[in-house]
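Pilot study result, target chain (385 residues):
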Amino acid sequence: MLHFPGRIPITIYPTFWIFAALIGYLNSRSFLGTLIWIAIIFVSVLFHEFGHALTARMFGQNPRIELVALGGLTYHNGQKLPFWKQFFIVLDGPIFGFLLVIVATILLHAPALSQGVIGSIISLTRMVNLFWTVVNLLPVMPMDGGQLLRILLEKIFGLKGFKYAVLISMIIAVAIALFFFLTQAFLLGAFFFLLAFQSYDTFRRTRHLSEQDRDDSLRQQLEKVEELMQTANKEEALHLCQDIRAKAKKGMIYELATQYLAFLKYEKGQWKESYELLRSLREELSGDALCLLHKVAFEQKDFPLVIELAGSCFQNWPTAETALRNAYAHAHLKQIVPTVGWLQTAFNEGLSNSKDILSNQIFDPFRNDPSFQALLKNINNRPLA
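Predicted structure:
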């Protein structure tokens, strides 16, 4: 990773060079051609990102540029900007790219520069920037065209505008991907299919987005909670979570604060409170929070919920403890087949003390069942006496 400090810091990740080289090789099939493509992509992407960064700086922001696998990203920190300033920050990236098209076109009119290798490089630079400027202005997120659409719709419809932009982005990306697949341009088709999936995932995750999620002070408080949870000051984090929930009342920030609060309550031994917090959000939980709900639901003897979460939890946390918890839950509900299945899974995951576990009275109703007998033989290498 290369990092260049300055008023506009630039970070270049190794994946940028890898993808640029891949694109160059696929289009040139030669070592020299690949190097030329890498240079053109580097200059073009960096110039494009400077369009965003210089405009953000003009508006009093502190921008930084990152060159990553599929292009570049410009971040800017500072006071919240009005929509028209956000619009121009996004728009000036493609404008800078088009300026390269104009410059290349002018240079090609000079006879000394329009011939030979130099002419080919300038012509390729013009083609690359013209293609990328047009593609990048398509209303597909997270490309600039998608961001411009988002800004316009948010200005008109508020929070709903963001959701509309994501939905439109997904539909258009799918249509473009299908077009490229049908024309056998599989690389571009795969690229737009990936963008369509990202838009779908964003749409799914932002179903409960609320106006409170746009509150910078609440976001800063949530970041503070995340910092405090990495330290020993868990009590302050707990009170801050409660404060965030009281202010937000709903939305993604509220849901994250609730999950953090549930973890903090669990660490304090307040399992019932943790269970109640997580149960109210069980459809929106992260993988770790889902597994915690699985655990505290078992402690609260909510065995139907344990069974409901069994597969998802084991996928996120494939341990012997998880499998054994599932077996106990099924046993409490007198379900022999899944009980034996989860017991076998628990032992396969390295669960020890098999005799003590299998002697638990919860399994008494199954002891004469052939599948339970087979499990005993398999584990103890002898039939139950």
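One observation from the pilot: The longest strand covers residues 62-68. A full batch analysis is planned for the follow-on phase.
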